[in-house]
Write a structure and sequence with these properties.
By secondary structure, the protein is mainly alpha-helical. The protein contains three helices and no strands. Helix 1 (9-48) runs antiparallel to helix 2 and helix 2 packs across helix 3. The longest helix is centred in the first third of the chain and has 40 residues, at 9-48. It is rod-shaped.
């Protein structure tokens, strides 16, 4: 008969938390790369001028989404690092605040 090794739940949970942290940190890197590319597209659209108005608007929207995603991932990582879970849903008020903050920072970047 094979011998089964049982591990305490805390060890299993710590290993699971570490794996989730690694996954979310990888997703953060991907989100940062997406944001970087969107910023490049916005810059290129600005150089071309009015002919690329749609490209500029699309890049601006991608930047807003990128900032929101990065904020969400950072919140999940912080929650995991402090012993919480990785629930992905934000309360509607927090989503609205995050979106508004990102929109304002994007608009201030545009006006300079």
């Amino acid at each position: 008969m094979a011998h089964t090794t049982w591990y305490p739940l805390t060890i299993v949970m710590n290993d699971l938390r570490k794996a989730k942290l690694e996954m979310w940190k990888k997703k953060l890197g991907e989100a940062n790369a997406f944001l970087s590319e969107a910023l490049k597209r916005k810059s290129e659209a600005m150089k071309v001028g009015y002919l690329s108005e749609n490209a500029y608007k699309m890049a601006s929207e991608e930047i807003e989404m990128g900032h929101a995603r990065i904020n969400e991932i950072n919140r999940i990582i912080k929650n995991l690092e402090t012993g919480g879970g990785d629930k992905q849903s934000l309360p509607p008020s927090e989503i609205k605040q995050s979106f508004s903050a990102n929109k304002n920072s994007t608009n201030s970047d545009h006006s300079s």
